[in-house]
Amino acid sequence: MTEIKLPELDDYDYKFSNEKIAKFPVEPRDSSKILIGNNENLQFDYFYNIINYLPENGLLILNNTKVVPARIMVKKETGAWIEFLLMEPVNADSIAQALQDIGMSKWKCMIGNAKKLRNSPHLSYYFTKNNQNIYIQIDVEWLENNENIVTFKWQPEGFSLSEILELIGEMPIPHYIKRKPVEDDKIFYQPVFAKVDGSIASPTASLHFTDRVFEKFENKGYQKIFVTLHVGAGTFKPVKTSIEEHQMHREEFLVNKSTIDVLYENINRPWVVVGTTTLRCLESLLLFAENLYPYPININQFDIMHRKYNKICDRKILIEKLKKFLENKNFDNLYGHTSLFILPPATVLSADYLITNFHQPKSTLLMLVDAFSSISWRNIYDYALENDFRLFSYGDACLLKNKLLDK
User: Fold this and answer.
1) What is the rounded radius of gyration, in angstroms, for the C-alpha atoms of the chain?
2) Hey, which residues does 108 pair with through a beta bridge?
3) d(CA 357, CA 33)
4) Would you call 151 exposed, middle or buried from its count of C-beta atoms within 10 A (0-12, 13-18, 19+)?
5) C-alpha–C-alpha distance, residues 371 and 346, integer Å
6) Dihedral (C-alpha) 213, 215, 220, 226: value to the nearest 10 degrees?
7) CA dist list (Å): 221 to 51, 63, 194, 224, 226
8) Helix-strand-coil split of the chain, %, nearest 5
9) Which of 25, 30, 173, 253 could make a disulfide contact with 48, Cβ separation 3.0–4.6 Å?
10) Under a CB-based contact definition with an 8 Å cutoff, are residues 318 and 283 in contact?
11) Closest Cα partner for 271 from 349, 205, 351, 217?
């Protein structure tokens, strides 16, 4: 990466008070505020009016992943609580497959309060939920790189892991919210259209959408489609070293052939992308299309810095290549993993407009906004803080325009 000049980490710092962090969602969902940042005249409105600031006859692209209650809290005999957050399955090809494990499952996990477990990496615990008794046994293998391998065994053995998590798991709301999960989080930390189990963090820009908002998009001539990218906890991982040394998280995605067909049919219409996760999925597809290998898709974090195509109009060529690839291979979908890091000076091809929330200082998501937005991220965030916008996962949204559209 030495041949490409990356920005400095301190360029993405800003100050805010903890009172700005949204601890609970607004109700109804679409009554959150939205900052309109698609031109120099910044303004705010309510999310249910977002269509008034977008062109007609566009394509709305969303991530239909579903958050699973992937946080397991276990109490030791000493009284100490240990947190296990499931990150990535070890003995399965996909998250969907691992969630169907019966009686036992092995995962890479983040472990909270791990120091209380170091001398006794074996736990067992009884849960009683919905008149069902669950016995769970947990064995931890400590790794040097902080990716701990945890084996879960449970009884009754006939239960799948998905069923176990529904019984004993908690919704993995981010720690910066600084409260315990409540039952309502199972509703509000989940998009209304969530469908495919697999995320351990919500695609939070999607949380603002309601049937009322979708109806307004439809009335303005919009078609909506879905991709699936399972969001990992790494989305909250702060950049603590230099940007160049930061290790991006790896996330699993799947896009159906029918979705690629719709993208192609709407290639000349404005693409409105909902959330950074959807954007990373689409950009990963376009990067794969440049070479069409290896498969299954595996996008590395700085691949975007070496792309051959760098204009919005080039995406037609790339979507055509994806269509032909699927036809030649007789595939029904495109599947893979991405560790893509979107930051300046990279260009973004897969969206004309981006709907996103407000992100933490020095975060990779803030750098993505900087790479994409036609308006300076700092001007946007200064405006948001001065006008009492609510920050982060349960917070308010903003609408951004691709800087390439101004060229």
Assistant:
1) 21
2) 88, 149
3) 10
4) middle
5) 6
6) 80
7) 11, 20, 23, 10, 17
8) 30, 30, 40
9) 30
10) no
11) 351
pLDDT at 146: 65
Omega before residue 28 within 30° of 0, cis? yes
> What is residue 145's predicted lDDT score, i.e. its pLDDT?
63
Task: Provide the residue type at 267 as one letter.
Answer: I
* Alpha carbons within 13 A on the beta-carbon side of 12: 25
What is the C-alpha to C-alpha distance for residues 164 and 194, in angstroms, rounded to an integer?
20
Kindly list the strands in the beta sheet with 132-141, ordered across the sheet, starting from the edge strand earlier in the chain.
Answer: 71-75, 81-89, 104-112, 148-155, 132-141, 122-129
Query: What torsion do the CA atoms of 180, 193, 169, 91 make, to the nearest 10 degrees?
Result: -130
Q: What is the pLDDT of residues 174-218, one digit of tens each?
A: 999 999 999 999 999 999 999 999 999 999 999 999 999 999 999
Residue 253 in tokens: 């995605």
3-state secondary structure of 380: helix
For 213-279, the DSSP string reads HHHHHHHTT-EEEEEEEPPPGGGG----S-TTT-----EEEEEEHHHHHHHHHTTTSPEEEESHHHH
| Amino acid at position 218, single letter | E
Measured between alpha carbons, how far is residue 9 from residues 175, 289, 358 in Å?
22, 31, 18
CA atoms of 215 and 231, how far apart (whole Å): 27
Mean pLDDT of successive 10-residue segments in the chain (407 residues)?
Answer: 82 96 97 95 97 98 97 90 93 92 95 84 88 92 81 94 94 93 95 96 97 98 98 84 92 98 98 98 98 96 95 96 98 97 97 98 97 98 98 98 94
What's phi and psi for 143, nearest 5 deg? -115, 155
Tell whether pTM > 0.90. yes
Residue 105 DSSP symbol: E
In the three-class reduction of DSSP (H, G, I as helix; E, B as strand; rest coil), residue 374 is classed as: coil
Answer whether CATH 3.30.70.120 is correct for domain 9-66+187-406. Answer: no
Residue bearing tokens 């803030």: 366
- What is the pLDDT at residue 143? 80
Which of 308, 368, 363 lies closest to 340 in space, CA to CA?
368
Report how many helices (DSSP H) and strands (DSSP E) the chain contains, helices first.
Answer: 9, 18
Domain ranges in the chain are 9-66+187-406, 70-169
